[in-house]
């Protein structure tokens, strides 16, 4: 994309472990995120989907500064995030917030909701006591909770309410970007819809940009403008969600979609998709999906495929030697 990208991720890598032992022997490492390149416009929601262990959380943690890339670059509004985190970690934390999967565990059980929400407000300049009180009430209202709840403790709330408090805490710092890591996976389906509605309303009201991680395709379809599909640390497909879901190019995306019944979607035959993920300590050569892929050929074992776009759909990219649906 052009220089207009708000968040720009360029060939990002994260390796855990590796290196050498004291005696010079190679230690096995896990390449959790490999050469991931993507960008986001302001106000956009990018969904990130993939099976457990594909690197979604590691990518999310690097975007919010909880983890450091081994290589590659992340820039927000053109500024390098790792350098910013070193220079002024608080300023960066204000701009990018994280919402965790487990809502109750992410809230300190010994602090009231008031104390939890006040902590990020302390870093906002020019808020006197009265303004802070108004801001707390506004935050509660933004997530549909009555201000009377402010003096209660996290364990007094249901999972859905606790997640709304987690969202209010993220909002308190007035961020530009919120990274949501499986924010509704721990909730009942009926409660999921409420939380997703609230998130949607907040995005519009505050002009927020979201990175939304989920293994649930229905959730990704309902919240995302674009979707990025990850497999074994790689980004294998990215494009507008309607486009990717209607016309997946990567055989892995097709397999993921076919495993979830939906109107108009073919369901995968049972033998497909049951093979296991490759061993992360011993990655296979070439495309890591080749062992499960119905379209593989010899070239797939040579090197990871280059990323290219669908004919006539420049914003729909996939990394596959034999993409589907281009003809
Ligand atoms: N701190 C760590 N040390 C060693 N390996 C790690 C660490 N964190 C993640 N990994 C490995 O990196 C790979 C990617 O993990 P990650 O948690 O990012 O995937 P995920 O897609 O978010 O999975 P899940 O949905 O299960 O959280 C996995 O093989 C995981 O075991």
Automatic annotation (TrEMBL):
MF terms in GO: ATP binding; ATP hydrolysis activity
UniProt keyword annotations, A-Z: ATP-binding, Nucleotide-binding, Transport
Membrane topology annotation: Peripheral membrane protein
Subcellular compartments: Cell inner membrane
Keyword ATP-binding carried by entry: yes
GO BP annotations listed: peptide transport; transmembrane transport
Region spans: Disordered: 306-327
GO CC annotation: plasma membrane
CDD domains in the cross-refs: ABC_NikE_OppD_transporters (cd03257)
Domain ABC transporter as annotated: residue spans: 7-257
Keyword Transport listed: yes
Principal location listed in the UniProt entry: membrane
Protein family (similarity comment): Belongs to the ABC transporter superfamily.
Protein name in the entry: ATP-binding cassette domain-containing protein
Natural source organism: Amaricoccus solimangrovi
Taxonomic placement: Bacteria, Pseudomonadati, Pseudomonadota, Alphaproteobacteria, Rhodobacterales
